[in-house]
């Protein structure tokens, strides 16, 4: 194992152990991830457990509505006893109350339930888009840096073409022209934001391929692919992790902006951005529609950025 | 120098073709075309007789192969003709020139404001690392940087426009703008600019302030500064004259990259505040599949970006005499 790889493996966690801010950020992200994973247990209009004359069942998990129930049936309800898409038109735009801690939206849907289910959309899109950017960027950067010549020329020109177009213009065009869906969003965000990762990895590879351990690997008969993946990539990847952390935050921001413009996740799927777009229509009347999803987006993006900062700090202690 | 310029221009031209080809073919590869949009708008629905659809396709040359369409478009471009909008049949060039002042005004004001606040904030923080101002501003920059602009806009509009009525909610001018006197016109414009400019500026401020601070810190460790300090140069002069001049060098690149945004505008802020600029026009053109307008904006932003990069690279040796044209340090 090379010294560089050792550093890449140990220092990010070493950095995370320092400072309350990064610990808070990690706690927040883990919490949001747990909420997203457990969304069907946390917010569901159907009982989690039901015991009636037909025995035990779980309408919430089976997806079959329980329908008419005898009043003496035993039920275990979810903490938030509303489904995210359950419309109650007579309870529209209600301010926060005991029944609806974050109020209801323009169709009488429970905002807290939609927030819980929206967490999954935001996190999944953020993580997947940043993941695609990380994979694509480091792979193309590695090929350009290692081989140079024509591969480098083609990849560098493609980066220039991509960078020449304002990021939001490109994503907007991709999402608006193709049918909006979670997959479209992930691809549109991931396929347009890999350029900084690629540049960084390319630069590292240009440096690393001249180092002695690369010559040693080549002399011992390792093939190009093995040298790239086993010897050079572990040494080049650490700073890219920092970019990926910022990338998750920026993807969540752009997704919510697109959902806000009505071009994000298709309705009625809940997303933090789409709850906010209703706030635009009822401005001055329904503050709870603007406050809670906005805070959730803000908090999650801050957490990603704090995480990125502390990893960067750990990798580069003199950079302060 | 001439050889360098020639090579750079050739690359820029190649990149420009790459962008236009990519966008031209991309927007034609997706389902739905302007004809279906036109028919929906005119209320005829999709039941229009095939000859009508065929006729509209022919007038827009949409019946030809895409490569032929691109050749036609390129030939028009050579005559500085960007074609006519599919939606209102007006020349795209006129539409762009008409919205350009609004976008320049909004984004120029935001960039200027952000820079004017960011430079002192960044310099002050870098001058006293670890001072409470430096630590607090570090946190504030990070928070500002993570704030979603459309949320801030929403809260500002809700509080200051709808509830308190201090600022106009939408648009770049009031309805009675043409009746106002010259001085009142200026006031009306400024009054409409406050919220959109604030929304655009805070993120840029955080970005530039962080950048200024980090490039100042990088310079502050240099030996020539220790030498200057040893010679008895005062701290104020040391920072403002010796350190700042070198710290501003990377700033040239960052500024060069942000100049094209002045032209492309901000889609979200312009859409939210119904600001009649290029970003909003582009957004509506994408929704309406208005190919000539989308291509026109592509040409504009691509040219602006390429020109900005070229000028930045050419200016670098002027700002930093150690650098020769072509990027290598001597």
From the structure above, extract its key features.
heterodimer, A: 320 residues, mainly alpha, elongated, B: 330 residues, 13 helices, 75% helix, globular
Q: What share of residues are in beta strands of chain A? A: under 5%
- Count of helical segments of chain B? 13
Principal-axes geometry of chain B comes out as globular
The portion of residues assigned to helices of chain B is over 70%
Give the low-pLDDT segments of chain B: none
Q: Widest sheet of chain A: strand order? A: 2-1-3
Number of helical stretches of at least 4 residues of chain A: 13
**Biggest sheet of chain B, in brief?**
none
Straight-line N-to-C gap of chain A:
28 Å
Our estimate of the beta-strand percent of chain B is: under 5%
Radius of gyration of chain B: 25 Å
Q: Quote the average pLDDT of chain B.
A: 82
Low-confidence runs of at least 5 consecutive residues of chain A: 1-17
Explain what the structure shows.
The complex is a heterodimer of chains A (320) and B (330). By secondary structure, chain A is mainly alpha-helical. Chain A is built from 13 helices and 3 strands. Chain A has helices at 3-17, 20-37, 39-42, 59-62, 111-147, 149-163, 167-177, 182-192, 195-208, 212-219, 224-260, 272-281, 287-315, and strands at residues 49-52, 55-57, 74-76. A 3-stranded antiparallel sheet of chain A has the order 2-1-3. In chain A, strand 1 (49-52) and strand 2 form a beta hairpin. In chain A, helix 1 (3-17) packs across helix 13 (287-315) and helix 5 (111-147) packs parallel to helix 9 (195-208). Chain A is elongated. The relative contact order of chain A is 0.15. Chain B has 13 helices and no strands. In chain B, helix 5 crosses helix 8 (182-220), helix 5 runs antiparallel to helix 10 and helix 7 packs antiparallel against helix 8. The longest helix of chain B is centred in the middle third of the chain and has 39 residues, at 182-220. The chains are: A mainly alpha (320), B mainly alpha (330). At the A-B interface, helix 6, helix 7, helix 11, helix 12 and helix 13 of A face helix 1, helix 6, helix 7, helix 10 and helix 11 of B.
